[in-house]
Amino acid sequence: MASKTILLEKVEELVAPALSQHEAELVDLQFVHEHGRWVLRFFVDKPDRITLDDCAVISEHVGRLLDGADIIPQAYSLEISSPGVNRPLRKESDFKKFIGERVDVTMFAPIDGRRHFRGTLEAADAGVVTVKDYEQKSYSLPLQDVAKAKLDPEISI
């Protein structure tokens, strides 16, 4: 099998027009081996929120494209779902979209002795995201050094 990264790039390129046609944005794409089977998992969103019906329609369209292209050599299950409340943040545009929201960011290397930052996303510009932690201290985090970032909403019950 070709490297997973190359495979995911091919898959993303193949399905991009279909996602665009459905006004859906690819938030994350994973190809993982779980419980003895391969799973190709798309996390998609829409400007006005993604619904279960949207996921079903997109799944059918993407499934036809993938079957026709036959670029994945082994058997796999296709999953299309919402990114959920803890949506991952990857691109600068993702961060810009959620300025003012609570985030959880992990860095590859420490900044000021810390690798983990939780707080409010203040800004995202020129490859840097700014997070104000709960002690009201702001940190400028280079996007290229972000290992993982996600929304961290406060959920009230």
Core attributes:
157 residues; alpha+beta; GMP Synthetase, Chain A, domain 3; SH3 type barrels; 2 domains; 3 helices
Structure, described:
- The mean pLDDT is 93.
- The chain folds into 2 domains: 4-81, GMP Synthetase, Chain A, domain 3, CATH 3.30.300.70; 92-151, SH3 type barrels.
- A 5-stranded antiparallel sheet has the order 7-6-5-4-8.
- The chain has helices spanning 4-21, 52-69, 92-97; strands at 25-34, 37-45, 77-81, 102-111, 114-125, 128-133, 138-142, 146-151.
- The N and C termini lie far apart (46 Å).
- With 157 residues, it is α+β, with helices and mostly antiparallel strands.
- A hairpin with a 4-residue loop joins β6 and β7.
- α1 packs across α2.
Question: How does the SSE layout of this entry go?
Answer:
Elements: H1 4-21, E1 25-34, E2 37-45, H2 52-69, E3 77-81, H3 92-97, E4 102-111, E5 114-125, E6 128-133, E7 138-142, E8 146-151
Parallel strand pairs: 2-3
Antiparallel strand pairs: 1-2, 4-5, 4-8, 5-6, 6-7
